[in-house]
Amino acid sequence: MIRSKLIKWLKWGMVCCMLVPFLAWQAKDTSFQPTDTKGFIAEMQKQFAEVQTIKKKENHREELERKVRDTHRMLMHDYPVYYDWWLQDGNDAKDIKDGKDVNWFRGSFSRQLSLRMQKLNITTAVNDTPESIEAAFQSYLKACERRRAERLETFTANQPEIVFTKFRTLRPSFFAYTEGVSDARAECNYFAGGSLSKIKMNGIWAEEETLLTDEDGVYRDPNLHFDGQHLLFSWKKSAKDDDFHLYEMDLKTRAVKQLTFGKGHADIEGIYLPDENILFNSTRSGSAVDCWFTEVSNMYLCDREGRYMRQVGFDQVHTTTPTLLDDGRVVYTRWDYNDRGQVWAQPLFQMNPDGTGQAEYYGMNSWFPTTVAHTRQIPGTRKVMTVFMGHHNPQHGKLGIIDPEAGRDENEGVMFVAPVRKPEAERIDSYGQFTDQFQHPFPLNETEFLISYTPLGYHIGHPMEFGIYWMNANGERELLVADSKISCNQPILLAPRKRPFHRSTSVDYTKNEGVYYMQNIYEGNGLKGVAPGTIKQLRIVEIQFRAAGVGEVNGNDEGGGALASSPVGVGNAAWDVKRVIGVTDVYPDGSAFFKVPARRPLYFQALDDKGRVVQTMRSWSTLQPNEVQSCVGCHEHKNTVPVAGHRVSMAMDKGIKALAPEDEMGERNFSYLKEIQPIWDRNCISCHDGVKHPMSLKGELKVVDKQSKRKYTDSYLSLTHARPDGPDRAWRGDAHHPEVNWISALSQPTLLPPYFAGSNKSNLIKRLEEGHGGTKLTPQEIRKVSLWIDLLVPQIGDYREANNWSDHDREFYDRYDKKRKQARMEEQENIRQYIQSLQTKQQK
């Protein structure tokens, strides 16, 4: 009676942390040691015979495929260890994609058994008689058990314990959509039911214990404190009545404490930091994805009580799976597609635990890898183990090691493992989605690791169920634990570890600016071939993100195809609203030293003497308050360092400069309707009225686009050479037209050469300079038109501008905008309290 009441209270979130241990201890240990050898042998022969019977039928393909899939699933559910041995010892395929591990329904059963016995050097002869098969199979299984003991000897010497999660494998439309928010804007990926579990190795077999279980909820992202006694994880207790929040378990007492709160916000992927803070991803940033309609997760900090929560990643779209390196840096995956295609841009980034020093780590300017995630450092090395996956697919794929010292892009620093091989630098959206599948590696050393893995993978497809394995780089493996009903994920070794290097912080939240220093803009490939002295200024632009997606346009270019929600222009125009912050001088020696607003996503454009773009940054950078960040040059290789003995630059000699205004309008969100249309109204529409001249530059918002839910002017559509994709379809611009030529928002991920596109390549600017039609624009007006082109031709400067929204659309957008503003107000209070706490410590 007492037990049932406790479970009921826990389900409703009413039980205090002191009652949770009672629930955690309810599950008894269960051993994973297999025992039913006779049943397995008989079932294998039965299934093999049934498959052969189906093969004899006419038109048997679909029935055969279904039977083989069902057989794989049944055998892995009922005899996981035995069947995994059988699969890993197979060697009867044409190539790796043919499935040498799983395609064992060929020839005779005795032949398949003989192949496996040969692999283990068993010389016993086997024929098709039941007695021979029984004896040979028993010999094979005993040899497999001896091999298991040899493989696991070192690993099991100290009876290691492993914590892991059980939850159903999600299948989002994009790998990072896993927040499952209760008030999701659109796509909500959530399957109820799961547990937080532990195994202890008793010899070569695991004994499992359930720490927490919830039939309506899900546990995810376990992270062990350096003391080995506290476990951080996320827990969502209900699909619609709760969201993922951070919890901490005391592993000695099993007491559980909730750290973060707030319905409608998901807090996931938390990790302990050396300074006793916690870094995690959260949807509290309040933005929606540019190329879809779901919410975004960015990185936040709080202390171990959940206090002083504040945003440190101000990113366009998702950041995922942060991990801590031994030197104190954090490496994470950042979806990064400002002014470029969204498919190929999920590289690894790095930063300090306080959010400073955000910079690329691997794959920033390359097609390959499509996505890297689930990254962890290999102990005692500077290498990381990670999963190579695609864009439009779940979070699993192929396993490899990245050595950033060997290279930073494409496959330069990549080596796949299990088995060891050098991958090709391929351009594949859903990369790695074939044959066996890997997720959540936990490296033990340079050759051994724990891994969530399925040998069946795409041989049988979804639903995909993973087990926890010991594995080595050559692909030798032993299944430690699996569950016939649910996937086992995210293994971590339960043992104390050395606290990583504690990096001191210079962040000062009483300030609101940071400083950039550039040594020589001409260093690196960004301005390769550009003569020194060409670049006169840097333009600093802020990217502003949508609160929700209403309407859509479509674009396509070298970087793939995509929609843009709450679009700021026609298809292929800029992804986001652009805010012009200001400009700073670049000195003749290529140096610059300037202040910028902190905690805002900024990107830079290198300008010539007419204020036109020579090169633009198709990413962004964010400084924390009081941060100083320096770089060698423009897209210099990250394995380079400043030249030793370099003389003091002109910018360093002059000192830090405040930004100057771009023009008379100063800092503002750029709007074509407010800044460019008045130029045409003053100078051009007397001729370009659609009558005297067929090209209209008139500014009435009379073109209503039902799909994008925007209104357009004749002039904007004419200059972008836009055409509708079809009847009642959205308008798509031609970024490569010589008249107005801009970098497509779907451009390739790799570094573009100087003068690739923009105002310097647009005939319109030449016409305006020449006084087209006898009209003479001022240099300031021409610079403003150039600015519009170089910002990728946005039409609006606010997501509500020029909309054709229904009342429902407006209410939808306003709801999430209000939610974002509320979260920002709460963060400001958190920062105020944080500043106060620091001041109190200083006084003591």
Summarize the structure in words.
There is one protein chain. By secondary structure, this protein is α+β, with helices and mostly antiparallel strands. The chain has three domains: 28-147, no CATH class; 157-492, 6 Propeller (Neuraminidase), CATH 2.120.10.30; 511-789, no CATH class. The chain is 21% helix and 25% strand. It has 15 helices and 39 strands. The strands form eleven sheets. Strands 1-4-3-2-25 form a five-stranded antiparallel beta sheet. Strands 33-32-27-30-35 form a five-stranded antiparallel beta sheet, covered by helices on one side. Helix 6 (109-119) packs parallel to helix 7. The longest helix has 37 residues, at 807-843. The protein is globular, with a radius of gyration of 30 Å. The two termini are 52 Å apart. The model is unreliable at 1-28 (pLDDT under 50).
Notable characteristics:
844 residues, signal, alpha+beta, 21% helix, 5-stranded antiparallel β-sheet
CATH architecture identity of the largest domain? 6 Propeller
Quickly count the domains: 3
How many β-strand stretches? Answer: 39
Q: Give the termini separation.
A: 52 Å
What is the CATH class designation of the largest domain? Mainly Beta
Main β sheet profile: 5 strands, antiparallel
Q: What strand order characterises the main sheet?
A: 1-4-3-2-25
Give me the CATH fold name of the largest domain: Neuraminidase
**Could you tell me the strand content as a percent range?**
15-25%
Shape estimate = globular
GO molecular function: electron transfer activity; heme binding; metal ion binding
Domain Cytochrome c: 661-839
Signal peptide: 1-27
Keywords: Heme, Iron, Metal-binding, Signal
